[in-house]
Amino acid sequence: MRFELEPRGIEPRFAECDSAVIPLDHGPGYQRASGENLIAGANRVKSMEEAIAVRWGVFYDCGMKDQRSEQRARLWLRGERAMGLKGVPKPRRRPAVAQALADMEVKPPPAATTARRMANQAEPKGQFQEMKPPEIDKPFDAEVLSTQEKRRRLLEMDEKEVRGCRRCRLHQYRTQTVFGEGDADARIFFVGEGPGENEDLSGRPFVGRAGQQLERMINGMGLQRQQVYIANIVKCRPPDNRAPAPDEAAICTPYLERQLEIVRPQVIVTLGLSATQYLLQSKQAMGRMRGRWHTWRGIKVMPTYHPAYLLRNYTHETRAAVWSDLKLVMAELGMPVPDRKKEN
Description:
The chain has 344 residues and is α/β, with parallel strands linked by helices. The protein is 43% helix and 12% strand.
């Protein structure tokens, strides 16, 4: 005996079946049977859903397991019942079909969202729950290291921890990590938000147009780039140069904290809104935070505009604001203030 799987007008597929009958009416005393019971010898199935399950099981066995196949099976059975047919032959199923029906019965659809699944693939389970916002009030209590020890620890952290880091999703998009660079005894530590395309390719912070503008700012203070330290909140480039997400910053910030603890600068200059808000754990606008002193773990912090913002808004007002912030830093460190004409 042969069992037709497709409605008329579509190329038929067949499977062997026995003479058992599957009734299409619910009837009194309805009780749903499992897929295993259907296979084990329940000769009568007392629900439309079970008939569809059997019907769909054969579709499954033919490599057609999808929602469209289930809908076609449902429509086919309803059409047969509307024409007065009380039952259809029950096919003899192979073990693969039995397993398929069992899987349909016990496996619910996944509840996780696409975004959460992507995050789970990128970070170890429980990684985010272990992360806490950085402490900003507790000063560092460890002793200040020698210059040689500072360099050794910075190099060791970069080579053994940061370069192979896969703790957040950003590692999927990087060419290489951007640890940071500069004088291990620097008095000024500049903090940006994250590497851009040029930084990702070179492995150095602030080397593009924004980096050139930052160098002009540093030179305007009477210093060279090698005399300060430069790093970012995150060590890998966010896709499309977007701002780091809060969870990404939370995972990567411990590296920055340890850099700051090793270098132990006198002043931190945060560049831009993202770096400032995250380091200071503040939601205030940049206009309210810049030009004023803040404190992070016993170190004075001066927020100012990001060099990229300065390039996009290269007006007298923005340049004057940045120069005003840098003059406050120089005054705090007892540095001579260069002539105004040297400001870029």
